[in-house]
Structures are given as structure tokens and as C-alpha cells.
């Protein structure tokens, strides 16, 4: 059996988290010394894990769709479409994940609300 690509691991991790299977996602794919750069939580593994679990509990109907991945060296960038039904907003999100030994050791994420009346006919994706 072949080893999955880093892009496949990143995609599985993010999809599991978005579907509420946060602890499973972390157990499978995140290193113990993981750190992140999300401005809303302390930078350690457990703080973001708990924040993701809370998000899954409070917004169980959000959807997450990967639009494209870019893999280079030890990093993967994932462009996704997040739909938050309760808040009635759509967000374009980019996650950048750094890997070591096949596990996620660092993550950055940035998002932009998708305007409902954008003049750009090409859209965000």
C-alpha cells in the first residue's frame, strides 16, 4: 500500500475536523508538538483542538468543500469553501500546513467572507 500524499493527509485532516471528528483528525495526523497561527486561540495543539470541537458543537450544519490543494516540499496549501448556515455566510479559507515525518507540525489559516453581490463574475473559486 502506498503512502498518501501530504495533500491527501491535509485534506483528510481538514474534512474530519469540519465534520466534527476533530479528535480523530488530531490523533491520525497532528504531531504532539503542533503549533498554529490562528489569532483567536493560544498557539498550542490542545487550544485549537478544543476550539475546533466547540465550533463543531455550535455549528453542526456547516459545510466544508476543498476546491484545490497545492503541495510543495513540506507544505500544503488548501483552498476551501466554508458555508456557515447559522450565520448565513460563505467564506473562502486557505489553510497552509507544514509537515514533518508525515504529520502536521504547524498550520496557518486565513479566510475571507464571500460577498453575496460581488461584481466579479469569476467568483472566489
Q: Termini separation (Å)? A: 33 Å
What spatial order of strands do you see in the largest sheet? 1-5-4-3-2
- What's the multimeric state? single chain
Identify the overall geometry.
Answer: globular
Task: Please report which band the strand proportion falls in: under 5%, 5-15%, 15-25%, 25-35%, 35-45% or over 45%.
Answer: 35-45%
Computed CA radius of gyration, to the nearest angstrom? 15 Å
Which residue ranges are poorly predicted, with pLDDT under 50 across at least 5 consecutive positions? none
Main beta-sheet strand count, sense and barrel state? 5 strands, mixed
Our count of helices gives 3
Q: What is the mean pLDDT?
A: 95
Task: Considering the chains and any ligands shown, give keywords for the structure.
125 residues
What does this entry look like structurally?
The chain has 125 residues and is of the alpha+beta class. The chain is 28% helix and 40% strand. The chain contains three helices and five strands. The protein has helices at residues 6-18, 22-29, 45-58, and strands at 30-36, 63-72, 75-84, 89-100, 103-113. A five-stranded mixed sheet has the order 1-5-4-3-2. A hairpin with a 4-residue loop joins strand 3 (75-84) and strand 4 (89-100). Helix 1 (6-18) runs antiparallel to helix 2 (22-29). The longest helix has 14 residues, at 45-58. It starts with 5 loop residues before the first helix and ends in a 12-residue tail after the last strand. The mean pLDDT is 95.
Amino acid at each position: 500500500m502506498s503512502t498518501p500524499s501530504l495533500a491527501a493527509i491535509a485534506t483528510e485532516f481538514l474534512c474530519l475536523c469540519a465534520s466534527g471528528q476533530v479528535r480523530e483528525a488530531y490523533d491520525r495526523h497532528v504531531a504532539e508538538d503542533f503549533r498554529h497561527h490562528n489569532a483567536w486561540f493560544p498557539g498550542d495543539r490542545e487550544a485549537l483542538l478544543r476550539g475546533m470541537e466547540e465550533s463543531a458543537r455550535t455549528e453542526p450544519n456547516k459545510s466544508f468543500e476543498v476546491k484545490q490543494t497545492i503541495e510543495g516540499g513540506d507544505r500544503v496549501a488548501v483552498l476551501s469553501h466554508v458555508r456557515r448556515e447559522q450565520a448565513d455566510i460563505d467564506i473562502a479559507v486557505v489553510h497552509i500546513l507544514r509537515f514533518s515525518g508525515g504529520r502536521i507540525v504547524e498550520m496557518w489559516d486565513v479566510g475571507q467572507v464571500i460577498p453575496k453581490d460581488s461584481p466579479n463574475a469569476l467568483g472566489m473559486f
